[in-house]
Design a protein that fits this description.
homotrimer; 670 residues; alpha/beta; Rossmann fold; 8-stranded parallel β-sheet
């Protein structure tokens, strides 16, 4: 696959508009950027009140100068549209650009990321400024990417959004009869007899119907997609070839990123792991999955567009990155498919909420700090890594991760109600594979998901089955694939209505069993899974009770009234095999044991043939292998083959020492 | 006492209106009900939008058919009025039917149980639909009971309710002078000089006066009683003989159930214990007391009208009932006076908030599940238990439990502020008696409470003394009764004004002491009660300091500056004895020790003469004794007399094994 | 310094207006006050609805009589203005007197301390009632002090306050250009282009800019100061010599008390320590600092104007004072400079929120209770202590404690965000000095703070440097002072904008280092400080990383990647020495060790020359020494000199036993 850009981008968010009265600092910035091997910066993200100081009056002079100064020095521009925050005059004159909250009350002006996505006036104002920007800069050779808005999130319950929601529903359901049936409104007497009886779900009104809440999320997600498309079209009108991104976020719940990604050319995201907490390996696993998710959204390389060179300022405890960690976490992103290491922020501002957020340049203005040197080192390393640019991740394992299922699970009134932890559960299945150097794609249940190339598909908590997924999974197994299905699967259809008949819907013959009851354990309560290899695995949270089991019982329950019943099963179907895990392993070691049992028989490619010490992870990107030490101790690694580390140029073979938080980027010697 | 119905009711909530497009399922329901020995179902609880799809247009066709199908098959009807939730069209056209919240803002349409109890329009609409239902069905021979609304709860702060509150106050107090004096409004300068200055207490306005908050609760309770009476009168107009119930709830705080029960003919309630948590015996004790409370409300048999055959879906952790538990918990209800085992719900719906709530029939539509068989077994058992129907509980012990006192305690600014735990404290006094097989009535402080028949009266935390109660307790002791009074007693009068003079008000000579100070212990802090029998009892939460003690000190404080002072005393007064417990025993064992010491000398009837192993409880209903095993282990029970178990027909005498969660329903062999 | 009054005041809040229909009780009050040695009471605090029952109609008759009765019996009057709560009629007629909340919504009538401080109508109404009171009573010989309102607190976001805030900003900044620059509004595009775009910060609007939030606090504080001044001027118009106070509170955050104190003649405060919890010594330390803070506000004696004789009723757990504690805590106030022991409340009312708050006289009306006797004993002791009246605290140590810095720290987005604990940190530095009998003043960063008289100045977390403080501290060291600066210092200027250049701003040469990075530790995480005297001190929360250290390293970090780097340093500068503590000692013992190392070489006067046992604290007020036992055990104290205890008249020399919670007030024998 072609790389997005011919080199790795290195740089970050840059806010010269905060320093227009300090030309000395703006000059100094360029000097220091060059020293730090910065080759690209994101600008203009929150510049609207400088670009349009009063309605219809534009001022691009300062931006012309900023762009000139940067590009003259070989620094390329990621140019933002300023829709993430609006000038005060706009909110004052047109209150409809602001959101209404869950209580349907209009918010006042302030903060950011809080515009109404529906407001025609806001769309018109955004289109105007975007067009003006594009007209002026879209063909500038130093501008390489559009950055649409910033960290889209949230929702609005204003009258305009309410009306748009009704229109969206009318378009989806056609008739109120259909809507009433598919929303199951006979429950609690909620039949709708006129479209304008419908309102967004809210703690001030209706919260009782999960199906409505899922539809509201779909609507919100589609409304924001349409907003981004509006911006995309505005800027593309002046240069259709200049690619467009918007910066996504991790663990993000509000919108369906698989769908949203269709509106942009390049996926980029903001990665802020909380390193050096209780379990760096868990943090690394979660962020590895996040990177893989971002790569999977468009099945293309992505950009790490924000990260911190040192610390953030918005967590409960804001801790410094230890020596080595900036390089390690930057390389992790590259390992999973990033084409960049971009940071927030180049220079700390003097005021506002993020004056103390980590930056390449701090308030002391120095270029001799620990942080500056760490950034410089990454910049330099990236210059040696151009051969990695065209390498792509080749995953034979796939994790089904689906936003609609996620919402449905989070709204489900059952089990550990409102604490179902779908995302964390997916990380738990991901981690043992990642630890073994197995590359994983993440795919959702949409039509364009093709499973045929995978050797192993995991579908944790497949609570909602979107249309066609049961058939797709069945066919996948039939053709020879290995599938793992868990408790809490196949319970509701795409309308969030329960299926009638045995569960998991459409898969009972593939799995060779049906699931009759779901037992939920109290916090602290456990059961045991007794495996056929003699291992005992602690279980927690959920224990489903299979019946009519035709499958082979690979493990059984050890306790309670269902002791002895199958808990882990495998069933041959067609050319493939379908596993079923009825209960939740209680901890990471338990999960490792179960996944080892399941994957034993599948030929999954590993990044390295060598056994690695605890805390050292190998990740392959094509022929390049990233060996990462997530511990604070040295680790001795024994390499069979002969490799070269692209960062240092050193050869690595036999026993070699990886320092604390150390990383090697290895390619085989020719 | 005559039973309500000539047999035990067995069945539950049935929602055919969710399946009108599936006649096959409606037919199947009847077949399966018969298989499960169901003889009664509650219908129409949330059917308003089906019964009156548009304003003034009624559709009873489907209900005619449902009732015909059921009654043709020998299944009787508990017919609901649909006031628990209203159609969307009504909220849209008449917003006043919706409530205003604690912030005085009108809620939007949604959810349920949230109508304004004052709104004339809502009352008119409810009266109309109730009348139409009654006109059509009140004389139908298969209809055996009216089910008014559903789980009444909550309150409204709309202008209509505010005005009604003012009227209620004017009626109660007559003049503002009287109100100002009895509300003690000179505190913080709150004198009221016009009736329309008064508003419901609210976090947006006034929260400072406990007396106002108690009055607000009385008003809210009476307003809901009047609403229920309005519905009762509407349906009784068509058949005065058809009894009326409404389903109550456990631990319910909002309304005075002793008062509310006056509006209905039959008490029924929804019982949802969280079995299989940390301490099933504590759960069983609390629900035993709940059942006794329900029986005590009208001093008549009651109905268990909702319970789950398996699990619920609305708790944080929703756990399955273990094998045996459905029978055991159903029999517990019968043991304490229920005439029914009804369940929520017959069949799980496909959508809405309760699609995953336990049901007799799950989404798989099967009648061969564990749950179905458990339900079938209870249905069959009830058929063998008709002799129990006319048996009544005969209690010689009485626990004073009073809603007005409860509210007053919860609003009291003192002690463990806002964490006084009156209800839980009552359970703590109840449990040792229940464990010993002693039947207990619960009575409140209203005028119609007659204590003369009891051997033992416990009055925990008699903080507020309603008018006449001190005299009643004095006379009770004088006539030979044994009374137990605790710390925190006799402090405020019915106006929530403190008494002047020594505490406990009106009882110091009966008790032979006065209480000078109340010490509150920090969480985790303890003291000790040294009993005259040598036992040491740990104390927590409250330690009151008695002075001028003429009573006999049965136990003294072991620690702190009041070490050596009386803590448990008894005083002969008239023909009786008055106990006083100055402090709170710290745990269940401590409570058992204290209660054993107090009840040693009182002749209280026990359900069985035999000593029972830990976790096994005997409860008498007349001559029938329910022996219940609340542990997950077998228990060996030794029975002196010769009994027969009505469920199995087996004889029981000598040593017999009660299985885990097992229950026997024993009657003596003739 | 001259005492405020010629004797110690003893008495408390008295509410005869709640008992006007009980003349017997009013008579009894006077008798009991005399018995309890009460010589002053505060009256009229919440009497507005009695004084002005309808608009413009005043009723002073009852107050005339109350004052006559008291003063006839030698009891002096602290006369309150009633602005702390208003009559219901006023709120009904003029809703603007009520506040708007953080959501900009108007509150309803109720509770207290919740007027709009801006409302012209409220100011007019207050001025009218104050003038009427002053006209009638300001020259009454028995009236000795004005008590303005009560416990001022909170804020209002109504349109009037919003406008006043804009005016205040316009006055401060002059132009929007200046405001935009100093508020750094280019961050998130928040440039203000019209004054009426500005609103108070709020969760419904803007919360992102710490500088705006600090300005809002300054405005709120100044608005309340102006309100108090308005009241002061109203009453002083009738007798300029009658002094004015208002009762302040501990840990109070809302307003800058150093500034507010300028509006009043005498500082008084309400002290409610939670005794007998986990650590009485910590409680005592915090309240010792509170007393010192109150003395420092005007650098004058102050009044303890509220305290409880037994317990309060508004904490989560309301515990009795143990025997001795009322005397001990009363004497602690005197030890730190109080001229009074006043209590809330004289007599418990029968209703309202505080009916169960501790009082000299309880609902039983007795004067033979433990509490009454404790109060009597304090009253008697005070009569023997007149020689102490003219003694002043002589402090050579000073703790910088600044409200603007406090707000800036609390709003800072960094470190342990929103949990920075500035006040508690100050207590931690205060406690080791207090334990050693060292007197401490508290001063803020305002212009009139003069440090020249101190031997030791501690400036914990000097995050915001108000104008001139760096120069003042530099000059203080230069002249020979010893200064201790900590991590998190010199980061922002008075505008809450970060300084540019090395930190701590303006002090790097004085300290001989610069601070490059701030590491924040997770809860439970620690590091170690290795002192040059061999001691190991555990560290937590914050570890700052010094660079370019010219200072002497007195201690170094023991762990993590900065192990070996300086953590505690001292630097000679001019004639003085500047210490720098880069990290937070983890517990009290750690803090003691560090402070001992720092103060070793400074000549600080101690209250007693003798070593004292654990939990016994000596505090000097001039030549009088208060020896206080904060433990529940007897403590044996060895006194070198010959003393006399003013309370008992006993001589104390050599070994003497201080009972649990005992106190001696010692003066040297002539």
């Amino acid at each position: 696959m072609n790389p997005i850009f011919p080199h790795f981008l290195h740089g970050g968010d840059y806010n010269p508009d905060q320093w227009l009265d300090r030309p000395d600092i703006l000059e100094e910035d360029v000097r220091m950027m060059r020293k730090a091997h910065v080759n690209a910066v994101s600008i203009g993200i929150f510049s609207w009140s400088r670009l349009e100081p009063e309605e219809g009056v534009f001022d691009f002079g300062w931006l012309d100068e900023v762009i000139r100064r940067l590009t003259d020095n070989g620094i390329q521009i990621v140019l933002a549209t300023p829709s993430g925050a609006r000038p005060a005059w706009m909110a004052q004159k047109y209150p409809e650009v602001l959101r209404c909250g869950p209580d349907f009350q209009r918010m006042h002006y302030g903060d950011r990321h809080n515009h109404c996505p529906t407001s025609p006036i806001y769309r018109e104002k955004v289109r105007a400024i975007d067009s003006a920007l594009a007209k002026r800069y879209a063909k500038h050779p130093g501008v390489i990417l559009w950055h649409i808005g910033n960290e889209f999130g949230g929702e609005c319950r204003c009258p305009l959004c309410t009306k748009a929601f009704r229109d969206w529903l009318r378009n989806k359901y056609g008739t109120l009869d259909a809507l009433n049936k598919r929303w199951w409104t006979d429950f609690w007497s909620h039949r709708i007899t006129a479209w304008d009886q419908i309102e967004p779900p809210s703690p001030k009104g209706d919260q009782c119907n999960p199906a409505v809440k899922v539809d509201w999320r779909r609507f919100v997600s589609s409304q924001v997609r349409s907003f981004i498309e509006m911006e995309r079209d505005a800027v593309k009108a002046y240069n259709a070839d200049l690619p467009v991104t918007t910066n996504l976020m991790n663990r993000f719940w509000d919108y369906d990123y698989f769908d949203l990604a269709k509106a942009i050319d390049v996926v980029s995201w903001d990665s802020y792991p909380a390193w050096h907490g209780e379990d760096d390996l868990q943090t690394a696993a979660e962020f590895a999955m996040n990177h893989d998710l971002m790569r999977s959204l468009k099945r293309k390389p992505f950009l790490l567009i924000e990260s911190t060179p040192s610390l953030v300022n918005w967590k409960d405890t804001n801790k410094l990155k230890r020596p080595g960690m900036h390089m390690l976490s930057s390389m992790q992103a590259i390992a999973h498919g990033s084409q960049s290491v971009m940071m927030f922020q180049w220079r700390k501002g003097r005021g506002g909420a993020e004056a103390f957020h980590g930056a390449v340049v701090s308030h002391d203005g120095r270029d001799d700090t620990r942080v500056f040197r760490d950034v410089e080192a990454v910049g330099k390393a990236l210059q040696h890594m151009t051969p990695v640019l065209s390498e792509d991740t080749q995953a034979k394992a796939c994790l089904l991760f689906d936003w609609e299922n996620r919402w449905a699970i989070d709204f489900a009134e059952m089990g550990r109600r409102y604490a179902m932890h779908y995302f964390d559960t997916c990380v738990r299945y991901y981690r043992p594979l990642w630890e073994k150097g197995v590359s994983v794609d993440l795919r959702d249940m949409s039509e364009d998901t093709d499973l045929s190339g995978y050797s192993f598909v995991i579908a944790p908590m497949l609570f909602m089955q979107r249309n066609g997924i049961a058939e797709k999974l069945r066919s996948y197994v039939e053709q020879g694939g290995t599938l793992l299905v868990t408790y809490l699967s196949g319970l509701v259809n795409e309308d969030d209505l329960t299926f009638l008949g045995d569960a998991p819907h459409g898969l009972t013959d593939v799995l060779g069993l049906r699931a009759e009851e779901l037992d939920t354990l109290y916090p602290g309560e456990t059961n045991t899974l007794l495996l056929d290899n003699g291992k005992r695995v602690p279980l927690s949270r959920y224990c489903e009770l299979p019946e009519d089991v035709a499958a082979q019982a690979v493990g059984t329950y050890g306790e309670d009234f269902y002791a002895g019943r199958p808990c882990l099963t495998v069933h041959a179907y067609g050319k493939g095999r379908a596993w079923y895990l009825a209960a939740e392993p209680a901890d990471e070691e338990a999960m490792r044991t179960v996944m080892a049992r399941v994957t034993d028989e599948i030929a999954l490619p590993h990044a390295l043939p060598d056994a690695l010490p605890q805390g050292v992870i190998a990740t392959a990107r094509g022929a390049t292998v990233f060996v990462q030490n997530y511990t604070k101790e040295e680790r001795s690694v024994c390499l069979t083959d002969q490799w070269r580390d692209l960062i240092t140029g050193e050869e690595k073979q036999g026993s070699a020492v990886l320092p604390p938080y150390g990383v090697w980027v290895l390619q085989k010697e020719a």
